[in-house]
Design brief:
The chain has 8 helices and no strands. The chain is an all-alpha fold. It is flat.
Length: about 210
């Protein structure tokens, strides 16, 4: 949360800091999802909804940036696509529009209010001072559940395009949380993380 509050001060019309902020905001939502069984339902819903509202512009920005990178790559192929200049212009205009929208939202104080509320709540939550072994045990069990869910969903011989797309968020969640918790986990985190990254490559997900 502190990193997000700092990152938003760097925003300008060139988009400075916005992509990083968007990625960290997404990761923060993953952490809330990871902790969901240990949270009061009303607390979980309140902050997921608040962060989800903040994330709308940033998710659009991340998608636009990814499309722009992909389109530029395609445009550099030996046989460039027809209309490549026009499409890049449209994506750049879309990105600039999102930069302006995000700056307006920041000036209105939307990000600061939501992030400070989350920080105040998290700092007073009962998990403060919890035994490290209990936290590690919870983390291992929760990750194993996510891995089982992913394995079950991806275990079909043939996945439709919508089914494959539905797996992207879960693979991203697993990658982010496992990488951060790796030193404290009792399970073989490296092995689990590699499995998830391999699946991400197959599906085309991850960032």
């Amino acid at each position: 949360v502190g990193a997000l509050l700092t990152e938003q001060r760097r925003f300008d019309l060139s988009g400075c800091g916005m992509t990083t902020f968007g990625q960290r905001l997404l990761e923060l939502r993953y952490w809330l999802a990871f902790a969901k069984p240990a949270l009061k339902q009303e607390d979980y819903e309140r902050f997921q909804q608040a962060l989800g509202a903040l994330a709308v512009s940033f998710e659009s920005l991340l998608h636009t940036e990814a499309m722009l990178d992909d389109w530029r790559t395609l445009s550099e192929e030996p046989l460039p696509l027809t209309g490549s200049v026009w499409m890049e212009k449209q994506l750049l205009e879309r990105r600039e529009s999102l930069f302006s929208r995000i700056l307006t939202e920041r000036k209105d104080g939307a990000y600061t209010r939501a992030l400070f509320a989350l920080w105040a709540w998290a700092s007073q939550y009962p998990w403060a001072g919890q035994d490290a072994d209990k936290i590690s045990s919870y983390g291992s069990r929760r990750l194993q559940k996510w891995v089982q869910d992913l394995a079950g969903a991806a275990g079909h011989d043939k996945l439709s395009a919508p089914e494959a797309c539905a797996l992207f968020p879960l693979t991203d969640k697993l990658t982010v949380v496992t990488a951060c918790l790796k030193p404290a986990l009792s399970l073989d985190a490296d092995k689990a993380l590699q499995k998830v990254r391999n699946l991400q490559k197959v599906l085309g997900g991850g960032y």
